[in-house]
Specification:
The protein is an alpha+beta fold. The chain folds into 2 domains: 164 residues, Jelly Rolls, CATH 2.60.120.280; 111 residues, Arc Repressor Mutant, subunit A, CATH 1.10.10. It is built from 10 helices and 8 strands. It has a 4-stranded antiparallel sheet with strand order 1-8-3-6. The chain has a 4-stranded antiparallel sheet with strand order 2-7-4-5.
């Protein structure tokens, strides 16, 4: 496991005129995002988390996220990591989903361990230093990151055992299914990124599901295979552009994720029986 990038941010709203501050993006690596103080809203994989202080999120590679800071002052840090995929437990999207939801109140009785708080505090202090000027500074930071990930794994394992043993009203309902939640998250991911090039391989890598299992579970939950669902999103978006704007057909193709106008026109006619131009004319004449 290696650290690709890291940083600590002190947000002060007095230096900006915007009522709220937005940050985020998309990275080719895993990311640890610790919200140390302040009030936040995090959007990731179609999920929306309302978050206060001392919350640690794990974000998977190539999945856009948007962090909105609502408070006047806030402090957060991030560490981008390669090599987490070598940790089978933590590379599974269902485990990361569960962890992130626990950070935002999925179970009101969930609390992080004192050891976790200690490790997070140590990382926060280290990020205030110029680590690259310290002997073995970044290596020592990585050791603390490895401790944190080990505690995440241990916490989730213990939480799973407690859920099986608990018959109290605070336990998650019997209808809760992590594989179902992964499918929901993947659908949300495609809904927010349908303009991009997305392949079945991308979805299997994000979910850590085998392709055959992913196709089977996705169709059970949505009625579509993953790629058919993506194509349906693009087609419905194209229809909206065609019926509500005067956007040129070439531009519609670009805005809905098709590599060229010929591919788009062929797919559109296959789905509707009409070319995009004739469909637009027919739609306009009927209104």
């Amino acid at each position: 496991m290696r650290i690709r990038n890291y940083g600590k941010v002190y947000h002060d709203s007095t230096v900006t005129t915007r009522p709220e501050y937005r940050t985020g993006g998309i990275h080719p690596t895993y990311e640890l995002l610790f919200l140390a103080s302040g009030s936040y809203q995090l959007h990731w994989l179609g999920e929306q988390y309302e978050v206060s202080t001392s919350s640690l999120f794990i974000l998977t590679p190539n999945t856009p996220h948007d962090l909105i800071i609502h408070s006047k002052n806030a402090v957060f840090w991030y560490i981008e990591l390669t090599g987490i995929e070598e940790e089978p437990y933590l590379s599974k999207l269902q485990n990361i989903l569960l962890w992130n939801r626990l950070q935002s109140g999925l179970d009101p009785h969930f609390t992080s361990s004192p050891l976790m708080q200690l490790c997070l505090s140590e990382v926060s202090q280290m990020l205030d230093m110029k680590l690259h000027d310290q002997p073995y500074g970044e290596q020592l930071l990585l050791l603390n990151v490895q401790k944190i990930l080990l505690l995440v794994k241990g916490t989730l394992e213990l939480y799973g055992k407690d859920r099986k043993l608990s018959n109290s009203s605070t336990a998650l309902s019997s209808g809760y299914s992590l594989s179902k939640e992964v499918i929901k998250a993947l659908a949300g991911y495609m809904e927010s990124t349908y303009k991009s090039k997305i392949t079945l391989h991308d979805l299997t890598r994000i979910s850590n599901f085998q392709a055959t299992y992913l196709i089977k579970r996705f169709k059970e939950e949505t009625g579509f295979t993953p790629i058919d669902y993506l194509l349906e999103l693009r087609m419905e978006a194209a229809k909206t552009y065609l019926s509500t704007t005067e956007m040129p057909i070439q531009k519609v193709a670009e805005e809905t994720g098709y590599p060229n106008i010929h591919h788009f026109s062929g797919e559109f006619k296959r789905k509707t029986g009409l070319s995009p131009t004739n469909w637009r004319k027919q739609k306009s004449a009927s209104e």
